[in-house]
Amino acid sequence: MAQRRPPLYGRHEDRGAKFTEFGGWQMPVEFDSISTEHAAVRDAAGIFDVSHMGEIEVSGPDAERLMQRLTTNDVTALDPGDAQYSAITDEDGVMLDDTVVYRLPESRDAEFLFVPNAGHDEEAYDRWTTYRDEQDFAATVDNVTADYGMVAVQGPEAPDLVSARADGDVLDLSKFEATDASVAGVDCLVANTGYTGERGFELVFPSDGAGAVWDAFASDCQPCGLGARDTLRMEYGFLLSGQDFDPEENPRTPYEAGIGFAVKLDTEFVGRDALEAQYEQGVDQQFVGVTLRERGVPRHGYEITTPDGDTVGEVTSGTMSPTLDEPIGLGYVDEAHAEDGESVRVVVRGTGKKATITTPPFIDQ
Amino acid sequence: MSFDVPDNLYYLESHEWIDPDTGRVGISDFAQDELGDVVFVELPGVGDELDADSEFGVVESIKAVSDIYAPVSGEVTDVNETLEDEPELVNDDPFGDGWLVELDFDDADLDDLLTAEEYRDQIA
């Protein structure tokens, strides 16, 4: 199948980016170097093209009910302009994806926008429309992924950078709050959200305005690829869909994945009963961080063992942390070994390397 | 983008190089660029015997793990221990201070390797 390209593909190519396939998209993985881009976001600011993220709009009389049934958080808590992190689960409470749900400002035609991960937009659209039809809900669902571009401007200087280019009051936005604003003459939804742990914004805009928005930041902001996005999110312990959880390869519930805060059991949603049972019984394994105390790098699929060599879990993501210059990983371990500071081993090419369970974030917030 | 490919070295398709005069082995400029920021190098010990085309170590960048292969059979006579603390030398100076190991080998084995010209064609 042909890979999808973001509207900014040509600009990235001109800038000399290296590309990678991710979720069916051809995206920039690196512009200069991961360490340079990572440091820019921690110390100043960086801009990411995240147009591979899906966008689904939902509106109509039953839009709220539909969103409530298909996501684990409580969408009735959202006022226009509010956003929330949420999970999409199946009947067994297994996470199909994680997402951010926006109740859009009243100026918008649609009431809700949610953002599935790269390559998940079509399955999310199918899930929403199938459930709507089964329940006979009056709701319109539009997969607008191809119509929108999206960038993230992240880092301590991001608020000033975005504020200087937006005609709205973006500095007044609370965390997980969004507003309409014009940037370089392009109508954007500017949200105080991100995936790096830094202050910052995500901007959603019509695809044909992508170049103007990107260019407005290009001279003052380090362009960053998916490589730095990955190392930044790992330092904060943020989940990567398809890697830290996957309904086929690594089925996990929100409680196992450490995002129980995004589950509201007093709402009605697909998977609620299974999750209530797990909430009462507790989980067998927990999502944790791990820091290697010996030379090596934890990677996806490496075993986590006790010092005696008994397998107690597995690494799902890992890297050499550019900020700490230490090897860090994320993964799941048996509940009995999930305590912060627990001594474990990570098996790197057959050798158990000393490691410590480290509750993320790995760096100070 | 053009990459440095010194004429006096021999190359493997998997991007390792060997200096026929010193027996030093490393990875190419192209390879270090593909890998990105190198953060860890795992090498054999002095005295280890390597077989041509066998994996003899690992170079890890922030994003990936990559096996490295012996260009020729031979005994490891020296290992670049500086890389333990400064793995970034593989990026900064892949044909110089970023060398990996030194081998005692048979010159006849060089005939099986790519010349600089052939390697340039491969990465073009």
From TrEMBL, chain A:
The keyword Transferase applies. GO terms for molecular function: aminomethyltransferase activity; transaminase activity. The keyword S-adenosyl-L-methionine does not apply. Residues 286-364 form the Aminomethyltransferase C-terminal domain. Its EC number is 2.1.2.10. It is an enzyme of class 2 (transferase). Residues 8-266 form the GCVT N-terminal domain. InterPro entries: GcvT, GcvT/YgfZ/DmdA, GcvT/YgfZ_C, GcvT_bac, GcvT_C, GCVT_N, TrmE/GcvT-like. It catalyses: N(6)-[(R)-S(8)-aminomethyldihydrolipoyl]-L-lysyl-[protein] + (6S)-5,6,7,8-tetrahydrofolate = N(6)-[(R)-dihydrolipoyl]-L-lysyl-[protein] + (6R)-5,10-methylene-5,6,7,8-tetrahydrofolate + NH4(+). Belongs to the GcvT family. This is Probable aminomethyltransferase. It comes from Halobacterium litoreum. The lineage of its organism: Archaea, Methanobacteriati, Methanobacteriota, Stenosarchaea group, Halobacteria. The gene is gcvT.
UniProtKB/TrEMBL annotation, chain B:
PROSITE patterns: BIOTINYL_LIPOYL, LIPOYL. Keywords: Lipoyl. Its cofactor is (R)-lipoate. Residues 22-104 form the Lipoyl-binding domain. Pfam families: GCV_H. InterPro entries: 2-oxoA_DH_lipoyl-BS, Biotin_lipoyl, GCV_H, GCV_H/Fam206, GCV_H_sub, Single_hybrid_motif. Binds 1 lipoyl cofactor covalently. The modification N6-lipoyllysine is found at residue 63. The glycine cleavage system catalyzes the degradation of glycine. The H protein shuttles the methylamine group of glycine from the P protein to the T protein. PANTHER family: GLYCINE CLEAVAGE SYSTEM H PROTEIN, GLYCINE CLEAVAGE SYSTEM H PROTEIN-RELATED. The glycine cleavage system is composed of four proteins: P, T, L and H. Belongs to the GcvH family. This is Probable glycine cleavage system H protein. It comes from Halobacterium litoreum. The gene is gcvH.
